[in-house]
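Continuing the series of single-chain predictions for the mutant panel. This is the parent chain; the variants come on the following pages.
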Amino acid sequence: MKLLLSQKNKLYEAILEEGLSTSDFNYIEGKPANSKEDVINIFYSPYKEYVFIIQDYHSKLTGENMYLMTTTPGTQRFSESDYCSNWWDLIMQFKIWLRNIHRETQQRDRWIELEEMNSIFSSPSPDESNESFFSDEQYRLLEMKINELKAALPQLSLTANQLLDLEKKLDILLEKSKTNTKIDWYNLFIGYILTFALDHALEGSTVHELWQLVKMVFSGIILLATNQ
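Parent structure:
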């Protein structure tokens, strides 16, 4: 199929209206290898899987000529297909696709962040020493390291409210070291810091700096369950 130049320009204008860069899109007309009909593909270049496909479709049931659209990303699924009977409905579907692109490209992959954070430390194995509680000496050492970490936090790119929240979480963690086994406390520590980073939607660079600071301050101490 082919579009009128005025129709192609409407698609171009829709990209601008949705606040996206037209240089990120490629408009291609042609016949796929497995089809006799021309197909229009509009690719979003930064993500090769993101595409808006338009095909002619003739309904044998109603005898109506329609548009068949396949969109990636979809609204509720990764890829979705739908029909529309007129050009203005197609434009609306195109705008919805553009909004889906904006939604998906603004997302942070929190599963990758979780994997990266967990990879910084190796979880202690649940052996007999890890299932014991901190001794008085270990508690004092832990307290010293938490205070050292709190003193170093201002060097990170955190707001005053974020600093206050993180300091409160560290105080709670210190208190919980009195009533939790070493391995349970370790898991609480990872969970609290991770939750803080996600709740405050920290930039990836700030998350990395935070975990590197934690790693430096607690080097040889956060896993003292494996060393005692």
